[in-house]
Amino acid sequence: MRPDSASSVARESTQFSGLLNRVETDEMATEMSADVFRRSDCRLCGSTDRELVLPLVPTPVGEGYATADRLSDVQPCYPMDLFMCRACGHAEFPDVINPEILYRNYLYQTSVSLGLVEHFRGYADEVVRLVKPAAGSLVIDIGSNDGSLLKFFKGHALRVLGVDPAQEIARGATEAGVETLPDFFTLDLARKIRRERGPATLITANNVFANIDGLVDVAAGIRELLAQARADQRRLDSRLCPTPERAAESVAISRRADGA
Ligand SMILES: [Zn+2]
If 82 and its partner were Cys, which of 5, 54, 162, 248 is the partner (CB 3.0–4.6 Å)? Predict the structure, then answer.
């Protein structure tokens, strides 16, 4: 891992450690390991008005299968209670597991799922048909796993970059021709990518967003990287005294830039 990536992870870990302190005062603290903290607010809108809608028993991490010589080991279990935010309707796990545990040694690879690779072939073809990116445009996939999707975008003469914290899978993807940063996607990383490689025309994320705790930071990173979002923002900034018609248009542009 590059030094700046390491510092980014270290910074996240520091933030996480700080948040862990909240567990000390949480009513669920005694039921959790030190690798989990319970959010006090909705991860989407920030409201504290949430309710438990589906209690589930604590469960080991997915794909964490024990080898034959470890069958007697007791695997750590993590809370799975599902809450819903009364303010925005977002259903979520309030208990956030340290992403280093969940994703650094992730084992699942996209290419082992029958049919998924073919789905990604059609997905890439369809997106290119709709967006019509110029040759050499940058495509970024967040949580890119083994690069199964990006290799199809690469086949359309586009530059591709994967971002995935699973270090071994990221290394394998890079060696197979899809450069992949072994990192968590953050606003800091987005700024760095933009400095080094320019804006992205396309950013994809599949089965990823729902697993992220820092939604605002990731969304800000996507906005930072998207070329069109920046261009729309410049148009907004140039409208110092908009007419009612222009003001309405500005709202529409703002919503589009925000991904709404
Ligand atoms: Zn909410």
Answer: 54
